[in-house]
Amino acid sequence: MQADGWLDAISWNEQSLVPVIAQEVGSKDVLMMAWMNRDALLETLRLGEAIYWSRSRQKLWHKGEESGHTQKVREIRLDCDGDTILLLVEQKDGIACHTGEHSCFFLNWDSAKSAWVDESKAGK
């Protein structure tokens, strides 16, 4: 495998992106989902902090660049199909979501109500 051949093990989509799940090292909480392109992954490896691709802004996005809630990457895993990356991270200040929540996954499906229930601090 060539020096950058390991990048070819990743199944990039039509936009040359791959979905990335960020999971907290200690708690194992799933914090968020984002996207990476090759440059974002290479910059993540270089810096040791999560760098994503912002589809809305069409540029690299250093997680926490505005909020200070950076993600120190402890481990990078690729799923068996090569089409999803898992980052095991230390989440600075315990806040991953732009809403100020620990995790972006605070909406819970209630089948009895056929509705999403907001389990965030603000929704309780």
Provide keyphrases for this structure.
two-stranded antiparallel ribbon, 8 strands, Ubiquitin-like (UB roll), 1 helix
Structural overview:
The protein is mainly β and 124 residues long. The protein has a single domain (5-94), classed as Ubiquitin-like (UB roll), CATH 3.10.20. 8% of the residues lie in helices and 36% in strands. It has one helix at 38-47; strands at residues 18-24, 30-36, 51-54, 59-62, 71-78, 85-91, 107-110, 115-118. β7 and β8 (115-118) form a beta hairpin. It is globular, with a radius of gyration of 16 Å. The model has no long low-confidence stretch (mean pLDDT 95).
Short recap of the structure:
This protein has 124 residues and is mainly beta. It is built from one helix and eight strands, in the order E-E-H-E-E-E-E-E-E.
